[in-house]
Design goal:
The protein is an all-alpha fold. The protein is built from six helices and no strands. It has two domains: 44 residues; 45 residues, no CATH class.
Amino acid sequence: MIRNLIEYDAIAKPKMVLDQLREGLKTLVFGRRIELYPDIFKELFVAGDKEVTADDIKSHLPFPSDLNQNDENIKEYMLQFLKDASIEDLKSFLIFATGSPSLPEFGPGVI
């Protein structure tokens, strides 16, 4: 019984969500293109192998130009944290901020 519950939570539920996503993409014709050209779309859905660096993350963090002194201090603390962080800390930060341990490889997105 417990095994069945674990299999359902670990396999069946995520599969159902992915199946729904696939069907939704097919209604937009996008899903068919993904099936025809999976290599082209891979970078949109699969995390890359590149190690994340503080500079990579900084390049994805937009800060407004009109920060007050308190916000400027917070910005500096953030940038110092990123500079001093280990690779694991950077991955944890990305998971916290984006849900993924890596940055997108397909373009300059923002966090």
